[in-house]
Amino acid sequence: MSPHAPVLLAEVLEALEPKPGDVVIDATFGAGGYTRAILETGATVIALDRDPTVQPYADAVANDFPGRFRLVRTPFSGLAEAFAGSGAARLDGVVFDIGVSSMQLDQAERGFSFMRDGPLDMRMSGEGESAADIVNTWEHGPLAHIFKLYGDERQSGRVATAILRRRAERPFERTLDLAEVVEKALGGRRGAPIHPATRVFQALRIAVNDELGELRAGLEAAEATLSPGGRLAVVTFHSLEDRIVKAFLTERSGAAPGGSRHAPVAVETRKPSFVLKFKGAREAGEAEREANPRARSAKLRAAVRTDAAPWGRIAA
């Protein structure tokens, strides 16, 4: 059994339309849920993941589908290089499943969860600055900024103050330690529908892994790498991610550039690089939401690559 159930699987397959001979990039391999379903259609999959702990799942997939699967350990920003290294002539599909996986949350030693005691880590790749590094070294302003920007925490300043006060006594090392300090700073649970530390932990995870920067880089790489007629499918789980994907696809499917009568802008007319597969976002049905709580906030957006030149960089 996979420790991570792929969300909106049927809808993703419908958007990708994989078939024998196609080459598809699964940009978030995880436990291989999307990858296996795509391989079962006869397509070839190049899977990406920066998390080294997924290797056993990749080995199992490679054993079951010899010659049609390879895993490249890289974040989204390495998508174009991963495809170039595959030797494939064309790219027919790319799928992204954004955010943290169930198995990462379930592994206390990874430090993603405020419900399980573990080292305050949160690094998907196991490399670079950890969550403990951030809360123990960043100043008040930058801490409050990420809590507000990435976590939508209204009392971000109060939380940052509490963190600085506590770390002056001793550094943070464990997840439950930080969760307790955040909870006290916000006045306890008081019947709140979510744990008080939810937004702060989300913000730290996004900052540690540069998730929004990697999403932008991945979308840029998919646009540059997909062949004409290639399909793009992106599953998001919160508004920050969805806003980036929505803006990207809205703009590059032909929305007019902005401007005003007071400050008109001269913008070069560019041909749409994508055509939307459907308007808006698809969401999970009632049965899937009941079976998999993670599906409740999921949104799928999808588009087809045209033969126009890529637009390039996404504004932050």
Automatic annotation (TrEMBL):
GO molecular function: rRNA (cytosine-N4-)-methyltransferase activity
Residue spans crossing the bilayer: none
Subcellular location: Cytoplasm
Biased composition regions of type Basic and acidic residues, renumbered to the chain: 282-293
This protein's UniProt keywords: Cytoplasm, Methyltransferase, rRNA processing, S-adenosyl-L-methionine, Transferase
Entry function: Specifically methylates the N4 position of cytidine in position 1402 (C1402) of 16S rRNA.
Similarity comment: family membership: Belongs to the methyltransferase superfamily. RsmH family.
Name of the protein described by the UniProt record: Ribosomal RNA small subunit methyltransferase H
Protein species of origin: Brevundimonas viscosa
Gene: rsmH
